[in-house]
Specification:
This protein is of the alpha/beta class. The chain contains eleven helices and 15 strands. It is about 40% helix and about 25% strand. The strands form two sheets. An eight-stranded parallel β-sheet has the order 10-9-8-11-12-15-13-14. The radius of gyration is 19 Å and the shape is globular.
């Protein structure tokens, strides 16, 4: 079987700045020069709840076809003590169809998702950016926090909420020891939201965890949870209070967080903008420090592809240098 394998450790060696650059380039590339990205294919099973997804994309910029195959078995931690998701990214040549590489999809997903969150903060957060909050300290939530701490040097406080409070406390101690920031584990969704410049939600909850009544002016909200068309991390008020709403892809408009408020008439389709349009300066972002901005991400194949290709190219360069 052709193609090289690029493992987790090598991909992690890219560094957060390189991940952020890849994410921003992917947002640009989505529209200029463009990609071919069909809707994701999803297989949803019950008893226990589990999910399979296929996310293909053609990257015009590199003449490469990328596809991520992913499973998410929600009960794995409880039933088997295993992580819930597994994935692989495969790169094909757009010229002759040869397999170029297989890459650890779990770390590609985790890094690019955190990178998208950081990109949204770069373009939309209020200034100065000093306090961030995280709801959910699983693998993805931790990566989002730590990427923010590495990329935005003025952050000095992290508020932490987790369904299991002891995990919030444990993670807070880690952040204080490693990053020297003031960490505040909290026991309520109100506490984690009030007084934060950026509120991030990284959960698998089908019910809202971000409530508009707790979101104050001059806040940037990031939601990356996605289970189904009916799942929501954000309540109606969180959506209605947002002055600017950006999504990572058209798929995000079909998520419960966006689709349901549109169907209720709380917001209109015209109020939703692709983040790519902001990066390309086709629309404006934050215009007032008092605005509430929102970035909704459900994951997008173009982001997987750009980061996977970047890792593949760097891997091949390192191989030639040996």
């Amino acid at each position: 079987m052709e193609g090289v394998y690029v493992d987790r450790d090598f991909i992690l060696g890219l560094g957060y700045e390189e991940v952020l650059d890849s994410v921003i380039n992917a947002f640009k590339g989505f529209l200029e020069p463009g990609v071919v990205q069909p809707p994701r294919q999803e297989l949803v099973l019950e008893d226990p709840p589990r999910f399979f997804g296929s996310m293909p994309c053609y990257l015009r910029e590199y003449n490469v076809i990328s596809v991520k195959l992913i499973t998410y078995f929600f009960e794995n931690p409880r039933l088997y003590g295993k992580k819930p998701f597994n994935s692989v990214v495969i790169l094909f040549s757009g010229e002759d169809g040869d397999i170029l590489a297989y890459l650890d999809g779990d770390i590609i997903t985790t890094l690019r998702t955190a990178g998208m969150a950081a990109a949204s903060t770069k373009y939309l957060s209020p200034t100065p950016l000093e306090t961030i909050s995280i709801i959910g300290v699983g693998v993805q939530g931790r990566m989002m926090v730590e990427m923010h701490l590495k990329l935005f040097e003025n952050i000095n406080k992290v508020k932490i909420y987790n369904r299991t409070y002891s995990k919030a406390v444990e993670y807070g101690k880690y952040l204080e020891e490693v990053y020297g920031v003031d960490s505040i584990p909290v026991k309520s969704l109100k506490e984690v939201s009030i007084g934060s410049d950026v509120v991030m939600a990284a959960t698998s909850s089908p019910e809202p965890v971000v409530f508009g009544r707790y979101i104050e002016p001059s806040t940037h909200v990031i939601s990356i949870g996605y289970l189904s068309r009916d799942s929501r991390e954000l309540d109606d008020e969180a959506i209605s209070k947002s002055n600017k709403i950006f999504v990572d892809s058209p798929d995000a408009i079909e998520s419960g967080d966006i689709r349901i408020p549109i169907e209720k008439g709380i917001i209109s389709r015209e109020e939703i903008h692709l983040f790519s349009e902001l990066v390309l300066e086709r629309v404006v972002g934050r215009e007032d420090e008092e605005e509430i901005t929102l970035f909704k991400s459900v994951g997008t194949a173009v982001q997987d592809g750009y980061l996977a290709y970047k890792a593949y190219k760097k891997f091949m360069e390192s191989t030639r240098e040996r």
